[in-house]
Amino acid sequence: NLLDGLDGIFNSGWSDRNLIVNQIKVDPDGNAWVLNPYAEADSNIIAIRPKNSENWVHIKAPQNEEYFIPTELDFDKFGRVWVAFEERTSMENEVYSKGGLKILLLVGDLESNFNYYWRDIENLDVLPNMNVWSITIDKQGFIWVLTSGGIQGYSTMENSQYLNPIYLINFYNY
To answer: Are 142 and 153 within 8 A, CB to CB?
Structure first.
């Protein structure tokens, strides 16, 4: 399956089939990325169609953690993929998705043989809130994160999983 869902999200027996996709984005290499926030069947939260291929490859949710619901992703100038996640608890008050940000690293060729690795952000406490609605990386490489607690910009360096908050002193001069 390209995308999947269970428990009221998608059932192949339904005549009215709906599936939620949070984002479709093309990376700098021309590969198409699709975020699947409710991938309960096999945890493939990201589907990627390489530029010169008819086949799709998949990225599973981070292991050993509560299930994540991806909201958006963006690509930095160092080749990393920044993935934002929604924070959500179940009706029984159990953590369903921790929220926050993670970095996805891809190694190898998407069309033949590749591996991927999830990296934790070292200082997630600098986010205004763990419920991340949106992420974008501007032309200068600054990472802008919109949470339910507000918007904040960050800088980061290559090979770093550390976010340095940007504090605009005089916004109107920028």
So the answer is: yes
Lateral strand order in the sheet of 132-137: 132-137, 143-147, 150-155, 164-166
Distance between CA atoms of residues 37 and 62, nearest Å: 13
Q: What is the pLDDT of residues 117-162, one digit of tens each?
A: 999 999 999 999 999 999 999 999 999 999 999 999 999 998 899 9
**Tokens standing for 30?**
């021309």
Its pTM stands at 0.85
Residues 6+ apart with CB under 8 A from 29: 51
Compute the distance between CA of residue 73 and CA of residue 33 in angstroms, rounded to an integer.
9
H-run or E-run covering 156 = none
Take residue 59 and report the two structure tokens written for it. 């990225």
With a CB cutoff of 8 Å and minimum separation 6, the contacts of 10 are 3, 4, 17, 18, 19, 38
Q: Are 97 and 87 in contact (CB under 8 A)?
A: yes
Contact 143, 103 (CB under 8 A): no
Q: Where does the chain show beta strands of DSSP type E?
A: 23-26, 32-35, 44-49, 57-60, 69-75, 81-89, 95-109, 113-120, 132-137, 143-147, 150-155, 164-166
Strand order in the sheet with 32-35: 23-26, 32-35, 44-49, 57-60
